[in-house]
Task: structure prediction
Amino acid sequence: MATFLYRLGRGAFRRRGLVALVWVALLCVAGFGAATAPAPTSGSFSIPGTEAQKAFDLLDERFPGMAADGATARIVIEAPEGAKVTDPGPKAEVEKIVSDLKSGPGAHQISSVADPYQSQAVSQDGSTAYVSVKYDVSGMELKDETRDALKDSGKEATDAGLNVQIGGDALVAAPETGSGEVIGIVVAAIVLVITFGSLIAAGLPLLTALIGVGIGVSSITALAGVLDLGSTTSILAMMIGLAVGIDYALFIVSRYRAELAEGRSREEAAGRATGTAGSAVVFAGLTVVIALVGLAVVNIPMLTKMGVAAAGTVVIAVLVALTLVPAILGFAGAKVLPAGRKSRLFGKGQAKGGPDADPKPNGGTRWARFVLRRPVMVLLAGVIGLGIIAIPASKLEMGLPDDGAQPVSTSQRQAYDMLSDGFGPGFNGPLMVVVDGDKALADKTADRIKGLEGVAAVTPPALNEGGDAGVITVVPKDRPSSTQTEDLVHEIRAVSGDEVLVTGQTAMNIDFSQKMNDALLPYLALVVGLAFLLLMLVFRSILVPLKAALGFLLSVVAALGAVVAVFQWGWLGSLFGVEQTGPIMSMMPIFMVGVVFGLAMDYEVFLVTRMREAYVHGERPGQAVVTGFQYSARVVVAAAVIMIAVFSGFLGASDQMVKMIGFGLAVAVLFDAFVVRMAIVPAVLALLGHKAWWLPAWLDRLLPDVDVEGESLRRHLDGAASPEGPDKDRRLVEV
Result:
């Protein structure tokens, strides 16, 4: 692989104009496709194999139209204190709202508008009423005039003194990420300038990453309608693609500069950088892709599509790093180096010396020596510290957000609270019980449910035209996301037969959370097992991969603990823009496991490969750790800071899921890079000594040599010809 990548890098460098033109053309094509594609939808939501999904499918079969995916809205009207919505004045305003919706702008997208006085949608005390609106299309497909008409529907009533708020998914638009991601990119640029000491070298990873992300996100937008991709898919792909795109280009550029310092020609340096650091980029990208695509084992289509789309963006980032980065390096010339080194290397053709030897130990060297002197203390501090942070994860509560999780300043949240106050907490999450049988079975089921403790109200069964199926609406006493409502769902299922199924948004959320919880351990085993096997191939060791996998688990659990503390308990919530606490997004743990696994392996590969090479060539185990940190720590730290900055930028998103994932990934990278990889890893290697690199001879013979470090390429090139002649003993792996 290294030889192929070497030739690919040199070819891209020589034909840089053509390579750059191809990537720009791809960006234009993808951008045109995104601009001309229909607006993205909210994405269909299904949970194969669950009772809620079976009931939903039965509804679709026996009650055509009832299970449609069209958007819904509730216009909640509250009378002033001392008045009732049934009084002549308020009643006239409410009826005008109904009339305007039926005949005003956007009425062609409305399937029904329910008059609250006819549908009995008035609270017992007469203080609150609501108008139910159903649309033919999803909230993402509503036209602007339709959405504006809904927003403006209560203005006159508000002017008349009524409190009008609107809830439901009809107002849901594409999530906004705000200016936070721009700040993340600015921070990344600052880090790159500090790392490289050159504006051109700092701007190159940003430019190539933006091109790659632009192609990936535009492609997702263009295919959203065809592949039924959710509205948040492109944001998550942007989040991951931008972070890895910058990092992968950073590794290639860093290695290119190191090769120039060794006296290579620019073309040769580009080829060697792509063949060596590029091999590690391919491996690192492969781990991220496998982890994301592996989300398919959960068997939830929405999550599978999110993973595949994000994986596609990662593949593009890898291809950009291997082709476009060498091409742009060809355009940049000596500008990728600081001014002092530029004149020294390019003032009279080739460099006259070998590598730039700095007699002073750098920060990585000093830190590694500190860890080697106190490995037990560093190890205990890292493990105990992350263990304490992980404690809140034991109280993890999972669920899916509804309008009750919105900030209190939003109209959706206020409508939610008004309905809860006027009709009871469970009114916002009614259960739909589907009976596969005749009227007698439906009536019997309704009577049985009425006797359950957690039930506030039960409607009479509504039968279909054939009389062979019925629907019963059950209003719980408690709010939708409460454990009491979850217990009620399980109790209804327990006391009913196979002909009775419970569905509705609340039941779907409960089943989704349970399915995610059940899949977490198998997926974790798959990811950790894969990590162990892949790292065993790379490092030719058993204990090093074991240490890497255990460190990954520790950082993930600690990150989950931080997420629970901030988003579920509200600790430091205002600092991170969390206005409303609640259950952790059901997909958060398993999604974070997949993403963090790939990112953690990036740092493991780039940091530990240098240690292994130094050890193989005769250095003592402790000195090999120092050598690894001397050449790799600076770049790994820069890459981690960039990822943290990019992920933190999404804390400004309006969507709670995007905000939570951004925070979780940023914290996970912080823990994994700076605590696990930079502290626990060298401490463990120092304690293990020679045992860290042990591999049974029989297993060594069985394992294929993936040559991630490009060692065979270096032996071949250094032994054949180089600007300094044969150099078979020198091994250049600093990234």
